[in-house]
Amino acid sequence: MENILITGGAGFIGSHVVRRFVNEYPNYKIINLDALTYAGNLENLKDVEDKSNYTFVKGNICDTQLIEKLFSDYKIDSVIHLAAESHVDRSIQDPLAFAKTNVLGTLTLLQAAKQAWKNDFSNKLFYHISTDEVYGTLTNEGFFTENTSYDPHSPYSASKASSDHFVRAFHDTYGLPIIISNCSNNYGSYQFPEKLIPLFINNIVNNKPLPIYGKGENVRDWLFVEDHARAIDVIFHKGKIGETYNVGGFNEWKNIDLVKVLIATVDEFLGRQKGSSEKLITFVEDRKGHDYRYAIDSSKLKNELGWEPSLQFEEGIRKTVKWYLENKGWVDHVTSGEYQKYYKEMYEDRT
Ligand code: NAD
Ligand code: DAU
To answer: Is 11 in the pocket of ligand 1 (CB under 6 A)?
Structure first.
């Protein structure tokens, strides 16, 4: 029996990781700790909430007392740490929230793990989920490898870079058994519609403007979220302690081209005339400090642990659009309340 604390399990990627581990590993006990911020939603886990190897705990990763109690009550063997403030635009509006959760929250978990495991680290693991944004930005050439120097530009990526440094420092200083993976942009079901793909699917459906930052020339490397969850599974079980693994899709898209694929797919599913929603494309003021290009070289993960993406992008996008169209109740729920205020401030008051 292995007791695994998964943080941020009610969020987008976390819910896919929790679902995978609960279903694939009945002999593991999964404890999902999540503060249920605007981005966390227990509806994401309806299908596993009654499983006997799953427990949900509502709480904040900065709450030292709670974290210490969880380690002791559940005899935690491993941590898969996903809880974070994750949206770049929000980090530009409120950087302190990102330092609190992403930096101090991670440090709180590291301290608790070190203390609970009393420096006996056999069969223990602290697995930290990070992002390719810590590496900064690329020109049209080259890829981020595990050896690329850190060069974060947004408050979000600076906070993730800082958390990565603390995780490595606990390994180098105290010998805490850690692994870090840095992944590219994820897409798929249950992603909060503040991020490009779900936001734009929802706006196309509702005939609302599609706010493209700058000229839409920025490039992102997109990975289907279930492929990321599978990578996390592989790295958790087969990764080497102290190592970093890059996870990416080898799937680069300029934002404007990606948006046209989304438009074509949604129009087709809704029976609209091909490309008719292209009229919704609206170029708006660029994101501050907008990184030009991200592209991950994930060959270490492929060569050493045998992982590669399973899904072609067009298929992943069709699955994703279908999911959002079939789960209107979920979309309506998460876009009510606070989301309306965020959307107005972010888009309507600035365009
Ligand atoms: P998300 O915003 O969808 O979910 C984050 C979850 O963390 C939510 O459930 C939220 O309630 C919870 N949370 C936030 N603050 C918390 C706190 N203080 N205490 C406890 N729980 C808290 O994020 P996501 O997109 O699923 O990203 C998950 C992780 O993966 C993050 O660490 C992110 O940096 C990383 N990542 C994301 C992507 C991506 O494309 N989304 C890519 C690479 C890495
Ligand atoms: O690269 C991994 C990162 O990917 C993760 O670490 C982050 O948590 C995740 O949010 C994501 O960051 P991005 O900033 O790349 O994702 P986002 O969906 O916000 O934006 C993707 C691209 O689309 C980016 O170039 C900005 C642009 N964009 C985004 C929004 C929300 C627009 O043009 N208009 C928009 O309204």
So the answer is: yes
Q: Is 86 in the pocket of ligand 2 (CB under 6 A)?
A: yes
Say whether 133 is catalytic: yes
Phi, psi of 136 (to 5 degrees): 95, -135
Residue 127 near ligand 1, beta carbon < 6 Å:
no
Which CATH code for domain 2-187+223-247? 3.40.50.720
CA nearest to 11, candidates 86, 95, 74, 69: 86
The token pair that represents 237 in the structure block: 């079980």
Say whether pTM exceeds 0.90.
yes
Query: What is the domain partition of the chain in residue ranges?
Result: 2-187+223-247
Q: What is the pLDDT of residues 44-100, one digit of tens each?
A: 999 999 999 999 999 999 999 999 999 999 999 999 999 999 999 999 999 999 999
Report in angstroms the alpha-carbon separations of 98 from 95, 150, 162, 333.
5, 18, 11, 25
Q: Where are the alpha helices (DSSP H) in 5-148?
A: 12-24, 64-74, 88-93, 95-98, 106-116
Q: Are 92 and 213 in contact (CB under 8 A)?
A: no
